[in-house]
Amino acid sequence: MLRDLLMDKIRSFYSRVTEVIQNYGKWVEENEPYLDCDYW
Asked: What is the pTM of this model?
């Protein structure tokens, strides 16, 4: 019972993390010209 709850929490946490990573990847793709070393 408790283990199922824990697994559920871990699963939701991991889905949040992957969502954040995907959003970050999307942001990097959109802003890549500005992140280029030559730009600085």
From this structure: 0.57
Phi-psi region of 36 (alpha: psi -120 to 50; beta: other; left: phi over 0): beta
Question: What element of type H or E holds 1?
Answer: none
Phi and psi angles of residue 35, each rounded to the nearest 5 degrees, phi first: -90, -5
Tens-digit pLDDT string for the chain (40 aa): 799 999 999 999 999 999 999 999 998 888 877 666 665 5
Residue with tokens 């030559």: 38
How far is the CA of 36 from the CAs of 12, 21, 31, 40, in angstroms? Answer: 34, 20, 9, 7
Contact 35, 29 (CB under 8 A): no
